[in-house]
Amino acid sequence: MGRNWTRSLIFGGGILFMLGVIDPLEGFPLVVLGMAAVYLGERRLEGRFAKPLLIETIAALIGVIAMLGITFMGGTGGSSGLSMWWLVTVLPYPAAILAAIVTILLVLLEFRRRELEAEARTQKHPGSRPGSEALE
Q1: Is the N or C terminus of the chain more exposed, i.e. has fewer CB atoms within 10 Å?
Q2: CB atoms near residue 120 (< 10 Å)
């Protein structure tokens, strides 16, 4: 994967994530896919935020699976027979969203900083290949 793919994963994943956060219940596929894409891009760069993003993505998946399971069982309260306490199993999803907002913003800022540093280095050394330093 080249520099453009990594950039597309990070920025595209960030956009998917933010679109899904507008309505987290209906947009859960966008949220999880966006988090996973940003994780893959950060992992490719061997960035310091890869591990927190992986943990947040797994927590979001656990919460989403619980949310879908409760939905398929008829929800909670009323005649469904499930106590409202079953909603506690969904808590990893909103917690992961809140943590991922901060982490994804930090990833985007760090990626931009790396790009600016690489541009500055290539301007000082015109013979070097542009962008090769950003992936190191």
Answers
A1: C
A2: 11
* 71 in a structural domain: no
Residue 69 lies in a domain: no
Domain that holds residue 19: 3-57+92-124
| The amino acid at 43 | R
> Tokens 């994943």 — which residue?
13
Tell me, yes or no, whether 136 lies in a domain: no
Distance between alpha carbon 34 and the CA centroid of its chain, in Å? 5
Structure letter (DSSP) for residue 77: S
Tell the burial category of 136 from Cβ atoms under 10 Å away from its Cβ (0-12, 13-18, 19+).
exposed
Number of domains the chain contains: 1
Over the chain (136 residues), the average pLDDT of each successive run of 10 is: 78 94 94 95 90 96 95 85 89 96 92 87 70 52
Check if the beta carbon of residue 57 is closer than 8 Å to that of residue 20: no
**Cβ(27)–Cβ(20) under 8 Å?**
yes
Residue 98 within any structural domain of the chain:
yes
| pLDDT computed for residue 127 by the predictor | 60
